[in-house]
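Can't paste images in this forum, so I'm doing it all in text. The chain is below; anyone willing to post the predicted structure tokens underneath?
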Amino acid sequence: DYGTTWVYRNTDQLFMVPLRDDIESPFAPESDSEEWGDKKDDEDDEDEEKDDDDKKDEKVEDLEIDIEGFERRAVRIPVESGGFTLHVVNDDNRLIYTRNGAKPGDDPSIHILDLEDDEEEYEKSVLGGQGNFRISADGKKLLVWQNGRNARLAIIKAAEDQKTEDFIATSGMTAMIDPRAEWKQIFTDAWRIQRDYFYDGNMHGVDWPAVRTRYEAMLADCASRLDVSYVIGEMIAELNVGHAYYWGGDTEDAPSITVGMLGCDFERGDGAYRIVNILEGGAWDVDDRGPLSQPGVDVSNGDYLLAVNGVALDMKKDPWAAFQGMAGRTVTITVSDEPKMSDDARKIVVELLSSDFMLRYRAWVEKNRKYVEEKTGGRVGYIYVPNTGRNGQNELVRAFVGQKGKPALIIDERWNGGGQIPTRFVELLDRPIASYWATRFRDSDPAWPPDGHHGVKCMLINGNAGSGGDYFPYWFRERGLGKLIGTRTWGGLVGISGNPALIDGGYTSVPTFAFYEKDGTWGIEGHGVEPDIEVLDDPAKMVGGKDPQLDAAIAHILNELETNPVVHPKRPAYPDRSGMGITEQDK
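Text version of the structure:
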């Protein structure tokens, strides 16, 4: 896919290049007429068999390539464009590749080219629904697998129309390893990966070989894989850079037990657990409704939870103890508006959540939106942007569309987790008025472009917004869109774009590119973006429901509406074109 703002999906195409000038395209037109004396098909078959026998005995000739005009000889293979990866050639000199899904969420598929197909259907399916494979050394077989926790592997022929019927049993596979030898390899690889991929070949001035010597000596004292992880983490910390993370590996993690969630809070009262604060977002947040907010579920704030699957709650334990191991399961809860079991108690069937994070997130955002609306008389919109990845873009756009007509917007990017470089986020917010369009039956004339916000803005920031969450406010201010309010951001503008993993599944991310300013100086990394108006996000106030930064943003944006509003011109008088031509002022 191409572009960071305009999106053109499925832009890859397959091409082939004849290596010499005298080689024709396999798709060159053929004559419709046959000449008398053509050999019969069976004779052709005999010749092909003879040719195959001759090929076994003939010597491999030197490969001749005409460099001049090489690119101009490129021929597009007539198959549908898409996204292609993993190009290999099988033992029959046919190209095999993965075609990615046409849109997000679609499964990939494996295909093979048949350039001699009489029906000109050159692309054949090898296997649908899977895209990961490796080809055998002789080009005859493919090892295919699906990603995921319970990945399954199978071996198929490197040819069209294959099925994965006999899967390779991996559950019984074991390997004997020498932990200390493997730990040394893991340590050495982590050191080498940073050395070979780090954006600065001088390693920030750090004597990297000396660092290896110093920390490698600690391996002898490591008693577990977690110890090794700690040593590696300390080693890469010598680079003094953001985004140099370390995680994973074959560690001995303790087993965990899931807890089913109802999407509410509890409080003790009258010898029972009372349901309080059923978590709800906006009325339009249908993708994140909790079990107690579903249509027909007769549960309200103030009801008491008395039993789960017929078992009474133990008041000596946390109420969530009754939901251990039940995440994602359907259960029957007994509730009542009285703190004890009675004939009026109601049995409700609900499907429990594995996490109520999104419910709490939606409820918090909606609370802030309503607060801003109430405090500003509906004049100011509120948009929260949680990160600069796909989810953050979706949240920005969906909130923007419903509020772009307001005179002012507060963009809240506090706790922004980053993701990508958000130039397109700012582009959405930075669409100045180009013109207006007069229509007869409207009181106000629409400004153009229609999908822009033509009013004043400000942005909330804090120290937990970083990476893309650093760039977002930086570029917002550079484009002159408004003031930054809050506290200095995290300060992590070196980027990571992938590098090799470690042998046991551990991973150390390597910063491969770094931000610098238009004036040729480094910036933001290690420091962050300073606010224009500093306001502390005082936790003592926030834990009680206050939000001093949001209050400061509201006060600022209301002042901006009074002192620096966007003034739209009045519609001019309709032109008089009863004569010839147009007047000078209307040109």
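The first helix runs from residue 41 to 57. The chain has a mean pLDDT of 91.
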